[in-house]
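Please fill in the sequence for the structure shown.

STRUCTURE ENCODING:
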């Protein structure tokens, strides 16, 4: 499975499920997203469907409820995002990253 960058709305749902640290039902997720972000039911279901298609979540239908389980763990996604950030922003340069973290600008960052 190839991991891809998640849009912010999908990342919010993934973070919520990761923090819950358990399988959650569609009902639980709809209620949580409504309370936390004021999303309507259809928005939550759309985001969940996208995450399932991207293979970040698996689903199991039990009765009337769909249960959602994480397939891509938080640590794995963080590793992917960090590598992408380093590659795309810092051209795989650890020294560029360290300079940015310590407030020192590199030559290409300076604006004249």
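FILLED IN BY: designer on duty
SEQUENCE:
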């Amino acid at each position: 499975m190839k991991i891809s960058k998640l849009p912010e709305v999908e990342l919010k749902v993934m973070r919520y499920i990761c923090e819950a640290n358990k399988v959650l039902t569609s009902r639980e997720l709809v209620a949580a997203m409504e309370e936390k972000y004021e999303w309507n039911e259809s928005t939550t279901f759309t985001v969940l469907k996208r995450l399932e298609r991207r293979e970040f979540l698996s689903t199991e239908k039990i009765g009337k409820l769909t249960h959602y389980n994480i397939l891509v763990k938080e640590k794995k996604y963080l590793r992917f995002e960090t590598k992408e950030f380093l590659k795309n922003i810092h051209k795989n340069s650890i020294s560029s990253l360290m300079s940015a973290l310590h407030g020192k600008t590199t030559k290409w960052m300076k604006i004249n």
